[in-house]
Design a protein that fits this description.
It is a single chain. About 35% of the residues lie in helices and about 10% in strands. A hairpin with a 2-residue loop joins strand 3 and strand 4. The mean pLDDT is about 95. The protein is an alpha+beta fold. The protein contains nine helices and seven strands, in the order ββαβββββαααααααα. The strands form two sheets. A five-stranded mixed beta sheet has the order 2-1-5-3-4. The chain has a two-stranded antiparallel sheet with strand order 6-7. The chain is elongated, with a radius of gyration of 20 Å. Bound molecules: iron/sulfur cluster (SF4) and FE2/S2 (inorganic) cluster (FES). FE2/S2 (inorganic) cluster (FES) binds next to loops.
């Protein structure tokens, strides 16, 4: 396939960025999207040009690093997958593809397609953990009975990979889907109830301090989430927050 790639280039957070056009020939439909970018970068390096900076790590849909907008959609045209799982067979010969970084005040651009998502780390540090008694009398977690329904719901919430697509696709840049998934995965389990009150209050406070917007229930986050994190997590977090505030 021959492709025209229009890619956001930006030297750093303080320099104005712009779309730059590249031509790429001999793209195999079997390549992943990131492999296609690897080939483009090798071509740029061969010409002594600066390669395009983009985040990636696992390349198997579990780390949440490979975050970018492709043709105006977070993680590209296919649903329920990350960019690293997207393959070039989803595009046609002669296509023009626009590739841009996440756009959100709380995710400033570091370089080209890489944005700073440490705001998510700080929200996690504010409450995304449990404390375990390690005095020697620690109870085996398998001794604590948990209903299948709650275990499944907690597991579904825990599949959030922190990619930030929910923020990027929200017109308000709200992080409610991410934070609610992190609150829910603990709220549903007895181990998470011990610190539940402080957890939800602290994580929501940190979310607000980071500059994420408010949720207005448009649901774009759920549509673009590669892990199908449900809006019911937001409803659960709101209930947890109300209980904690009272
Ligand atoms: S809720 Fe979905 S879109 Fe948001 S960070 Fe988690 S996995 Fe990514
Ligand atoms: S590189 Fe890890 S999810 Fe894509």
């Amino acid at each position: 396939m021959k492709l025209t790639l229009k890619i956001w280039r930006q030297k750093d957070a303080n320099t104005k960025g712009k779309i730059v056009e590249y031509q790429l020939n001999d793209v195999s439909p079997d390549m992943s999207f990131l492999e296609m970018l690897d080939v483009l970068n090798q071509n740029l390096i061969d010409k002594d040009d600066e390669p395009i900076a983009f985040d990636h790590d696992c390349r198997e849909g579990i780390c949440g690093m490979c975050s970018m907008y492709i043709n105006g959609r977070a993680h590209g045209p296919d649903t329920e997958i990350t960019v690293c799982q997207l393959h070039m067979r989803s595009f046609k010969d002669g296509d023009t593809i626009y590739i841009e970084p996440w756009r959100a005040k709380a995710f400033p651009v570091i370089k080209d397609l890489i944005v700073d998502r440490t705001a998510f780390d700080r929200i996690q540090h504010a409450g995304g953990f449990i404390s375990v008694n390690t005095s020697g009398n620690t109870q085996d977690a398998n001794n604590i009975l948990i209903s299948k329904y709650d275990a499944d719901e907690a597991m579904d919430s825990a599949t959030c990979i922190g990619c930030g697509a929910c923020v990027a696709s929200c017109k308000n840049s709200s992080a409610m889907l991410f934070v609610s998934a992190k609150v829910s995965q603990f709220a549903l389990l007895p181990q998470g109830r011990v610190e539940a009150t402080q957890r939800v209050l602290n994580m929501v406070k940190q979310m607000d301090e980071e500059g994420f917007g408010n949720c207005t229930n448009t649901g774009a986050c759920e549509v673009e989430c590669p892990k199908s994190i449900s809006l019911t997590n937001i409803a659960r977090m709101n209930r947890e927050y109300l209980k904690a505030s009272l």
